[in-house]
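Ops channel
N.P.: pipeline sanity check, posting one input/output pair.
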């Protein structure tokens, strides 16, 4: 992790696309929103993850961030190579970034384990992000962009083959129930108590392969933008690409269910397709027609995404702890703020609306923090 004080964001150029920062910021805002309702017992359905199969808004948020990470790779690598960096230099930066992400992810898991009195969970959101980043980076650096689709197909089909064709622990091949599936078997065999098993760890070992494919799909979208004769043409190409991915994912879902816990290939394609369409729209509005005032807050979040996410998780977990032993009924700061301040204020509303209002307020807090970093020209590279 390093601190720099950059000048204000440069105009859109071949190595920097402002819409990528804006869309990245949107995903961070969505991650904070989904992870921090005021009351977990009163949450609107789209903001909850599907238990096993199906698709909700919440399910799309993390894959969208992985996809956008992939979009950034060709631009970032090209910028560094143009500045004189070697392939070895790129790998040094990739390894350092992956190491920092894994360390931060383990730190978050450590805090959660201390709060709950449970064993340290080894997989996690940032750990999966790190591993997907490494795998996708290898393809971006060493494989011609015209062959990335073959690599993506190999990753997704390889993951499908493992899930559907490999018997495990006395179960026949193709078993995909929450209690019995190859991904869960591998995670419990490798990590034991250090993995989630309800229904199974959503950031486990096997799902890293299609997650890397998701990142590489984002890189393919970036290649389309870089090759396009104009920004409008680039947005059009990415939009068509997204529609194709959606169609392929939908057809595949007839035989391979949509499942974020497994990160199935059908899920990866649909999540990537929707994100590609969102990128096309954002690229058309922000880059082709010029930045708009509404995009400023998302730009702030998108410039320092990992640190904002990490700190929002830390603060959120601290707010869920009882700070003073004599607090009546063991009320946490979050519970006090929600039940004593927000819920009575909006009492005519449903509890789910009050819960959403709390989450929106929490997002606003981190938008303000990101804005302060941006105005101070502080970018924390992770």
């Amino acid at each position: 992790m390093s601190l720099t004080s950059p000048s204000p964001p440069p105009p859109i150029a071949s190595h920097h696309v402002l819409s990528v920062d804006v869309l990245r910021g949107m995903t961070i805002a969505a991650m904070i929103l989904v992870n921090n309702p005021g009351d977990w017992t009163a949450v609107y359905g789209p903001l909850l993850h599907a238990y096993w199969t199906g698709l909700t808004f919440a399910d799309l948020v993390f894959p969208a961030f992985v996809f956008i990470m992939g979009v950034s790779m060709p631009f970032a690598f090209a910028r560094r190579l143009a500045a004189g960096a070697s392939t070895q230099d790129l790998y040094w930066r990739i390894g350092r970034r992956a190491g920092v992400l894994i360390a931060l992810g383990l730190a978050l898991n450590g805090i959660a384990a201390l709060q709950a009195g449970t064993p340290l969970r080894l997989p996690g959101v940032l750990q999966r992000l790190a591993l997907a980043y490494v795998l996708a980076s290898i393809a971006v650096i060493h494989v011609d962009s015209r062959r990335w689709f073959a690599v993506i197909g190999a990753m997704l089909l390889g993951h499908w083959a493992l899930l559907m064709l490999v018997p495990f622990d006395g179960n026949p091949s193709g078993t995909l129930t929450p209690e019995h599936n190859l991904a869960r078997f591998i995670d419990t065999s490798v990590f034991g108590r250090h993995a989630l098993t309800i229904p199974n760890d959503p950031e486990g070992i096997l799902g890293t392969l299609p997650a890397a494919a998701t990142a590489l799909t984002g890189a393919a979208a970036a290649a389309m933008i870089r090759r396009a004769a104009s920004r409008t043409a680039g947005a059009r190409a990415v939009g068509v690409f997204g529609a194709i991915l959606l169609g392929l994912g939908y057809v595949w879902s007839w035989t391979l269910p949509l499942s974020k816990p497994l990160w199935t290939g059908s899920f990866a394609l649909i999540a990537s397709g929707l994100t590609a369409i969102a990128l096309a729209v954002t690229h058309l509005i922000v880059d082709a027609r010029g930045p708009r005032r509404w995009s400023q807050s998302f730009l702030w979040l998108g410039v320092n995404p990992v640190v904002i996410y990490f700190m929002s998780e830390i603060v959120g977990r601290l707010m869920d702890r009882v700070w003073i032993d004599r607090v009546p009924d063991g009320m946490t700061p979050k519970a006090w703020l929600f039940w004593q301040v927000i819920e009575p204020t909006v009492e005519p509303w449903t509890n789910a609306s009050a819960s959403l209002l709390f989450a929106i307020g929490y997002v606003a807090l981190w938008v303000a923090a990101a804005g302060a970093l941006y105005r101070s020209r502080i970018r924390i590279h992770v």
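N.P.: looks fine end to end. Residues 87-116 form the longest helix (30 residues).
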